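SEVERITY: medium
COMPONENT: batch folding queue
REPORTER: lab tech (J.R.)

DESCRIPTION
The queue accepted two submissions in a row. Attaching both inputs and their returned structure tokens so the on-call engineer can compare them side by side.

ATTACHMENT 1
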Amino acid sequence: MPAVSEAAATGEIAEIYSDIRSTLGTSVVNLIWRNLATIPGALQWTWSAVRLLYIGAAAPYAGAVRRALDLPKVPPLSADVLTAAGIGQTEVKDVRAILDSYHYTNALALLSALIEHYDPSPTLAGQLSETASPAALTELPPLPPMAWLPSEVQRLIGELNEFGTDTALLLIPSMYRHLAYWPPYLAVVRILLAAG
């Protein structure tokens, strides 16, 4: 999928990227925004249309939506499993920071922000007061281009990308590329997905 990377952004695009990072409380500009930047005027129009939603009640609604999701329970990975895979405490902390950032910003995506315009369900309304504050801003590592990754890591990302999709694989989620700094972690996730 075409995108204007954060490193390549200049002028107004770079300014909007900076505002997105500041407004959402993250160090990463998600793919949807980077893709909109490839369409003349699209990023400017979309960000100006939804920016105020993110400042308002979007975060509590997004948090409530996350809590209301009935997702399958995934068994935690023990410290022994992670150590055997070459993932120590420092790596776990770095991986968790990346996952927390994506977990937070993905819930604030355009669709979640628009929930503010509708009356929440009683369940959702009851959960709003329980919403935690936004994730602390953590500086994530630079997003590596696929072409810079070793071929075996590219293949592993490709295999992960096949799970849960039934369309042409034209889009590589940024999260997988961020996690490519820790190939053993990606391998463990791949094994768990294949077993599940």
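ATTACHMENT 2
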Amino acid sequence: MADNGVYAMVITTCANIKSAKLLAEIIVQERLAACVQLIPIESVYVWDGKVCNENETLMFIKTKAVLFDKLSSVIRENHPYDLPEIIRLPIDGGLPEYLNWIGETVQAP
């Protein structure tokens, strides 16, 4: 079984599917993630003192925890938002073969 703490899921959102697909392709091409899932969502949030309600695309990015800083930089450089959501969640378990696939697919640290 893969070691706990080795893998992570990074979450971000984009304003639409087009910008999310472009960002996902950059991330995967640079081998910073093995997989990026794109999910349409509706977000309610406060921005500049106002309550906003917008359609967005949620991105689940499967990677190695050690690649977080580089992945975060790539997201910021290519993200359409001034302040993108970038959250890292540890993956503390999962199907060992799937976790190994992540490890084999992303670039070596």
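NOTES FROM REPORTER
DSSP finds three helices and four strands in the chain.
No errors were logged for either attachment.
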